[in-house]
From TrEMBL:
This is NAD(P)-binding protein. Belongs to the short-chain dehydrogenases/reductases (SDR) family. One of its GO terms (molecular function) is oxidoreductase activity, acting on CH-OH group of donors. It comes from Periconia macrospinosa. Keywords: NADP, Oxidoreductase.
Amino acid sequence: MASTQPLLGKTVLITGGSRGIGATTALHLSSLGAKVVVNYVSNSSAADAIVAKLGADKALAIKADAGNVQDIECLVQETVAWKNGNGKIDILIANAAIGDLTCTLEKTTEANFDRHMAVNVKGSYFLVQKAAPHMPSGSSVILVSSSLTGVSQVMPNYLLYLTTKGAIEQMTRVMAKDLGRKGITVNCVGPGPTATDMFLEGKSEELIKTIASWNPFQRLGKPEEIARVMAWLAGPDGKWVNGQVVKVNGGMAV
């Protein structure tokens, strides 16, 4: 019989872990036995609420800008030094991202471009670089893209956001070749439209129904459905999966 806590004794570091898919994933991985470090940049109350729910012996909240290399390095060092952890990082999830959907080609500023690249691309790249020396053989890296990278009907306002996610998918393929030599898997999860507070914010009910209608199941994804795929990739059953971009969207994009 499979263990009900396959991640017992593992330490997870997840950026952007205070809300949405990140928070749901943190809670789910903890239920599977992992100790979880929840990174946040501004929402301390949400991060603290996760720690309070799980207990200070099972979770730790750390503030850091996921787009700043110095902050990333400190985040990794604090995770490794956490007295309730195990002195290493077994599962690394680079979930933090921003997405300004007003950025058509015409409206993209250099400052906006640089900030998106810093958080979504540079942040993920250097997070893995700084964490890898503390990740033993058998560890897992999970990056996060979007199912919209494979949708031909994508709207022009997704240009900047999906430019960064295209970089993440290529990063996944090549990092898998690099870290695979050390026994570390690198994979990417590409969620479709998912019913998080962030996704729903500012959208009319009509628009949400329209987006849901693009899916053969006629609904949005649920954060826990993304979290379960991340847990599978990070767990013992996903160890022969490496360098893959797993689209989690109910068939919206295939």
